[in-house]
Amino acid sequence: SQQGEEDPQALSIQEGENATMNCSYKTSINNLQWYRQNSGRGLVHLILIRSNEREKHSGRLRVTLDTSKKSSSLLITASRAADTASYFCATCPPGTYKYIFGTGTRLKVLA
Amino acid sequence: DAGVIQSPRHEVTEMGQEVTLRCKPISGHNSLFWYRQTMMRGLELLIYFNNNVPIDDSGMPEDRFSAKMPNASFSTLKIQPSEPRDSAVYFCASRTGLAEETQYFGPGTRLLVL
Which residues of B touch A2 (CB under 8 A)? Predict the structure, then answer.
C-alpha cells in the first residue's frame, strides 16, 4: 500500500487565500519531500524536509514535519491561479533508496 | 539544460502488441527510476537502476514488463504483450545518485492499450 496519504484529496480556494494540505506516512523516514504535478506534466520537486527538522520555508511554501505523528503539512500562502496542480508527498524509508509517493491533493485556485 | 527526455509522449496500441518506452536521463545522473501513474493506484515505482545496473525491480507488475539500461544515457521499458490494464502514464526520473534525494521527472508517456 502507499506509504503516504494526503488529505484532502481535493481542495478549491480563491486566489490570495492560503492552501494547506497534509500527508501521513507509515514508517520511519530519512526525509520527506513535496512535489507538484501540473496537468499532463511530470512531477516537479518543491521542497525537502529532513527527519530532524520541524519546519522549513521556501518562498510562499512552508512545510512542517511531526515525526511522532508521522505527518507533514504543506502550506502555500497567498495562492495564485498558477498554483493549480496536484501536490504529492514522497517518503524514503531508512535502508532504501526508493521514494514512495502519496495519493496526492488536487488543488484548484480560482481567479 | 535539457531535462529528462521521454519518448514517445503518447502511444496508442492494440492489445497483444509490444510497446517500448524510452528515456534519456539528465547528463551526469547515475540513478534512473521508472514509475507508472494511474488514477486507481497512484504513482508506483516499477524499477530503478544505478550506474546502469538494475537495483530493485520488485515493482514490476508481471513478466510482461522488462527494463534495460544499456548505457548511462538511455533506458527502455518494454511491455510484451501489452494489455488494456497497462494503460497509464509512465514516468522516468533521474537523480545524480542514490544518496541524492531530489528526483527530476520526465514529461511522461501516456499509453493507451485498446
Answer: 42
